[in-house]
Amino acid sequence: EKGGFEHFMLKEIYEQPNALQRTLLGRTDRTGRNIVFENLGMSNAHIRDIEKITIIACGTAYHAGLVGKQLLERLTRIPVDVDVASEFRYRHPIITDKTLVIAVSQSGETADTLAALKEGRRLGARTLAITNVVGSTIAREADDVILTMAGPEISVASTKAYATQLLVFYMLAFYFARIRSTVSTPLLETYVAELHKVPELVGQILENHGQVKQYAESLKDKSSLFFIGRGLDYSVAMEGSLKLKEISYIHSEAYAAGELKHGTLSLVEEGTSVIALSTQEDLYEKMLGNVKEVKARGAEVYGIALADNRTFAKSVDNLYLLPNTLPLLTPIIAVIPLQLIAYYVSVQRGNDVDKPRNLAKSVTVE
Ligand code: F6R
């Protein structure tokens, strides 16, 4: 059942190229250049009418929503909120009939997400579910559904569901941007073409897992760790940090790199491990500055950057190079080494990787 893998988590990490491929399938028009969602009830008029988007989700799905926000705002210029579902209901959110509420849930059964979705609808919003399970409660409750085609996810730590949720957010942002004419057609076509290459890039990373495995070995006895990044990298850092904590039980924090000096830098001392993501060209210089800040306090920095960004190599202690892609598209590929690090650290520590203590796969109580 684990298809020759030692754990479901590793199997599911390796299924990502196929899961992404399946999620892309049938979602471009005949020319292959435009994203289409054939079964969406939302008309073009509806899409043009949206004044605000609120994304609600929990855990890893929430982290996918954080990337979704940046994509949607950048490409469609619609203001986007992202809320942890258990917070959304109690904060008197501003929702109107021109709000689109997007619920993201692998299982489609998470009680908090379901309750938040119902609250959004009660307040008059149109609702869209991004879920991995056909016929799940959240899928049935929403006006529209976009399925991630990750296939069953058994490991408690979510991997392929997250990757396919990100992919759906890319497709949705490209789709809305075309209908609302907020991005030029040639640029959108470039994005769609590059997006189609992502599954293969993920495959390339998975073929060369030696370097991350080695790095994981060096982390196994740490008691604490930092993940830093800016922009899209910060959202990915949050997911990398959650994955590590969840299955390795090592405490870690994800920090917006520019925020370190406003507090957390005081925790960095000789030998502190910092994983620094730098895939956003417009932020390279800023990230270099932040890496210097932590290095000056004795941190050991493991950098993750695109193959093009070799200058980063001089500033970090170790560098992991991702295959090149557009900076906009890096989250789906940058998360892969982070998933593998979490996995191998957990294995090294002898933990029950697929069933971490105190956690359940589907959280159906609020
Ligand atoms: C972390 C993880 C959880 C889930 C969260 C939401 O690896 O799996 O944080 O993402 O419980 O679950 P779904 O997506 O089923 O609503």
UniProtKB/TrEMBL annotation:
Q: Where is the SIS domain?
A: 43-182, 215-356
Any one of the GO BP annotations: carbohydrate metabolic process
Where would you find this protein in the cell?
Cytoplasm
Q: What is its EC number?
A: 2.6.1.16
The UniProt keyword set, sorted, is: Aminotransferase, Cytoplasm, Glutamine amidotransferase, Membrane, Repeat, Transferase, Transmembrane, Transmembrane helix
**Transmembrane segment boundaries:** 328-347
**GO MF assignments:** carbohydrate derivative binding; glutamine-fructose-6-phosphate transaminase (isomerizing) activity
Q: What is its main location?
A: cytoplasm
Keyword Repeat assigned:
yes
Query: Catalysed reaction per UniProt?
Result: D-fructose 6-phosphate + L-glutamine = D-glucosamine 6-phosphate + L-glutamate
What does UniProt list as catalytic?
Answer: K361 (for fru-6p isomerization activity)
Q: Does the keyword Transferase apply?
A: yes
* GO CC field: cytosol
Q: How does it assemble?
A: Homodimer.
Q: What does this protein do?
A: Catalyzes the first step in hexosamine metabolism, converting fructose-6P into glucosamine-6P using glutamine as a nitrogen source.
* Protein name (Swiss-Prot/TrEMBL): Glutamine--fructose-6-phosphate aminotransferase [isomerizing]
Taxonomy-wise, where does this protein's organism fall, top ranks first? Bacteria, Bacillati, Bacillota, Bacilli, Bacillales
Task: Give the stretch of the parent protein shown, with its full length.
Answer: 245 to 610 of 610
